[in-house]
Amino acid sequence: MISLVTGGCGFIGSHMVDKLLAEGHQVRVIDNWSTGRIENLSHQKDNQNLTVYHMDIRNREEIEPIFKDIDYVFHFAALADIVPSIQKPWDYYSSNVLGTFHVVECAKDAGIKKLVYAASSSCYGIPDEYPTKETAEIRPQYPYALTKRLGEETVLHWGQVYGLPVVTLRLFNVYGTRSRTSGTYGAVFGVFLAQKLAGKPFTVVGDGSQTRDFTYVTDIVDAFYMAAISDIVQDTFNVGSGGTYSVNQLCKLLGGDIIHIPKRPGEPDCTFADISKIETRLGWKAKVSLEEGVQKVLDNIDYWRAAPVWTPDSIGEATQDWFKYLGK
């Protein structure tokens, strides 16, 4: 089998590459290194079954030849985080929507066996029901969530109209080794781990009682692989841990002092995936407990030494536009 991973130098994408190589696939990676790091694949640099292309999915003419003879496409390439999506919405539209359009067009023309798209549970916004089913109302709260949803709609529409064999997986709060260390204020694990290394308190939003469906990255890539090799097409699945855990619980596992910062608009008090559909249809279930996953991250904490150390003041400055546009 020959598989293509877009965003394969990124957090989830690099773990997907590891999984595919372990399963005996030849793997091609497309990544523009805007958020991904080539170092995430340094342990595979001598693997003859891996080829990395420094390319951008927004350039269709450049990426199209890479789809030749591909069996499976795993589409992770995207821009993430809330505040930059508010400040620079075109960057997010061009990457997450236009880039996805280019990927599905190339996949269609190449006659691939399956495309699996990394959708986001942020499409649900602030749901009415927990755990949240795939049938919940779509309510994106900010441009990142909207563009990931538009990318998902594009993938599903190409399945409907052109018969492209696709599956979309809505991911809930993925964490693990190699998560992003970029300068953007974003995912809680990257923020907390850099603070722990610096001996600074964890900046907990609100009172910390809010819960998140923290799902370990290797469980995520297992779901992608199972979706790819299954006979299921034109369908959408939630991918979550089977539980929901408070930020205070996470801080206790990481070990450190806490300082509180203001609660933010547009953020749910809970994320919790109903995973009954993926369990029934694909036979997938998360294996890594939060305690096990956090320990894996702590065992590799030096990875986050390059990450910025956020303080209440720098977070307040970085999230001004968040409150300005979403706090109405």
Q: What oligomeric state best describes the polypeptide chains here? A: single chain
Rg from Cα: 19 Å
Biggest sheet: strand arrangement:
3-2-1-4-5-6-11
The count of β-strands is 13
Name its key features.
328 residues, alpha/beta
Explain briefly what this protein structure is.
The protein is of the alpha/beta class and 328 residues long. 38% of the residues lie in helices and 16% in strands.
Word description of this protein:
The chain has helices at 11-22, 60-63, 82-87, 89-110, 143-162, 188-197, 217-229, 247-254, 276-282, 290-299, 312-318, 320-326, and strands spanning 2-6, 26-31, 50-54, 72-75, 114-120, 166-171, 174-175, 202-205, 211-212, 215-216, 235-239, 245-246, 258-261. By secondary structure, the protein is an alpha/beta fold. It contains 12 helices and 13 strands. The strands form 4 sheets. A 7-stranded parallel beta sheet has the order 3-2-1-4-5-6-11, sandwiched between helices. Strands 7-10 form a two-stranded parallel sheet. The mean pLDDT is 96. 38% of the residues lie in helices and 16% in strands. Helix 1 crosses helix 7 (217-229) and helix 4 (89-110) runs parallel beside helix 5 (143-162).
